[in-house]
Amino acid sequence: MADTELKIAPIGEGISLKARAYEALKSAILNMNIYAEAAELRLDERDLSQRFGVSRTPLREALAQLDQEGLVRIVARRGIFIVRKTKAQILDMITVWAALESMAARLATEQAGGDEIAQLHALVDQFSQDEIARKMGEYSDANIKFHQAIIGLGKCPLIVEMSNDLFFHMRAIRQRTIFEQDRAKRSIVDHKEIVAALEARDTERAERLVRQHTLRLRDHVDRYVNLD
Amino acid sequence: MADTELKIAPIGEGISLKARAYEALKSAILNMNIYAEAAELRLDERDLSQRFGVSRTPLREALAQLDQEGLVRIVARRGIFIVRKTKAQILDMITVWAALESMAARLATEQAGGDEIAQLHALVDQFSQDEIARKMGEYSDANIKFHQAIIGLGKCPLIVEMSNDLFFHMRAIRQRTIFEQDRAKRSIVDHKEIVAALEARDTERAERLVRQHTLRLRDHVDRYVNLD
DNA sequence: GCGTGGTGTATGGTATACCAGAAACCACGG
DNA sequence: CCGTGGTTTCTGGTATACCATACACCACGC
To answer: Is the distance from CB of B58 to CB of B18 less than 8 angstroms?
Structure first.
């Protein structure tokens, strides 16, 4: 039943309180629309520790990690502030993404198996151009998966890890659908060309197409997205 | 009256104990030859806290940060272990470095001022090929500075930051001079070509030269360095 | 001699109390 | 009404005590 008041369940699974607090804070921060408020958003250690039902110690460790990741900024005796990314920072993230994914595409032409590359078709052909408008949410997910798939084919765990970090941070941007809205049709064409280059094992072309594709996204964001 | 016993200020410094512990541990870990020992190196929180003269709390926060950065690995109720990078991980780091610096070079051809590019000559012409053998240590430093300078010219703070992280981690490799020893002469030629491409604002060529230069280093490490 | 179970100990995880500094607040004088 | 000084409060930083578990060690039984 709905347990009107036993929601707490302090004794949790096996994972540490720090890890749980970290995950909880992370998703909480990402799911809030940071840019909606005018004032800078501040967190309070004691308040959070009470609401989570844990002491400040593991909570502080979780916050310290978020601080290092750049999601929050801890200022001694002042407070803990949720960080808003500037447009310049977002553009930089997309630039790095372009650098990493284009390198991954390069590696993929040398490292990936033909069957692995072939699987990319499933992610590209999934949507006809007409469907995009109606299923923008789904397409957005598939789009991310496509890029992550290419990055995975590079067989370089560090690139995968760093790219995931970047994608994660970019989730914090409101209206992230704008990333694709007007670019979806072009996007699909680009994707098909990229897959073709990978299949042809054309290293230089694959790298260039991936880079250009992502840098175009950067220019698009630069032109049409306003955050500051 | 008053001031009979005021103004203690024993240790001064404004920085937090956590930050100081972090820096101390960081340099301590990097300056020890991790690969000399056969057994896995373990740290003890209580022991360290006594030797540093601080409580476990700030020490733990410093260690948690090092854990996240990948320098140590904290295992609950087991211990804190200094992480040894595998050869594969080092090769991956060099790969990412190549991706980032080649993108920075690309950006530099579009963003950097002519005067800034011209300053690269000072870092390249500093050594004649004959001097390299005698001044390998200095050359190694100049070499790093050259690459950092190019990365800086890309005017992308995120790339600069991520690259610094990579360079930092690679410092932990013993005999890092092997990175250049047999490659120094070729390195200087490469560097000159890179500067020329930047000066000519040849975006594609600058990117390619930088990438090839660093990927060759990767192959060199792959062939001649043995860590595992 | 060898396996087995219990107990001790070492270690990271957590809770809590206290510290120091910064900001907010308030009383008071002009 | 405004400025100014001190005091109070709120905040993250630090110290410390205790908890839970993985491992080692030893006694005991076979």
So the answer is: yes
**Whole-number pLDDT of residue A116:** 94
Scanning the structure block, which residue is given the tokens 């000399």? Answer: B36
Q: Tell me B43's DSSP state.
A: E
Sign of CA dihedral B89, B95, B99, B104: positive
With an 8 Å Cβ cutoff, is A65 touching chain B? Answer: yes
Nucleotide nearest to B42 (CA to C1'): C11
| Residue B178: strand, helix, or coil | helix
Nearest to B147 by CA among B194, B95, B114: B194
Q: Name the nt closest to A75 by C-alpha to C1'.
A: D12
Q: In this predicted model, what pLDDT tens digit does every residue of A91-113 receive, in sequence order? A: 999 999 999 999 999 999 999 99
The tokens describing B43, both together, are: 């740290």
CA distance B226 to B66: 25
Contact predicate B105/B98, CB 8 Å: no
Packed helices B157-170 and B87-111: angle between N→C axes, nearest 10 degrees: 150
For A145, phi and psi rounded to 5 degrees?
Answer: -60, -35
Q: What is the pLDDT of residues B136-186, one digit of tens each?
A: 666 677 788 899 999 999 999 999 999 999 988 887 665 555 555 556 778
Q: Residue B66 contacts by C-beta under 8 Å, 6 or more apart in sequence?
A: B22, B25, B26, B29, B72
Tally helices (H) and strands (E) across chain A: 11, 3
The token duo for B14 is 């404004």
Burial of B116 (0-12, 13-18, 19+ CB in 10 A): middle
Digit-coded pLDDT (tens) for B66-79 = 999 999 999 988 99
The mean per-residue pLDDT over the stretch B105-117 comes to 95
> Coil, helix or strand for A74?
strand
- Tell me the per-residue pLDDT of A78-95, one tens digit each, with 9 for 90 and over: 999 999 888 899 999 999
Count chain A–chain B contacts defined by CB atoms under 8 A.
65
CB contact under 8 A, B107 and A96: no
How long is the CA B84 to C1' C6 vector, in angstroms? 37
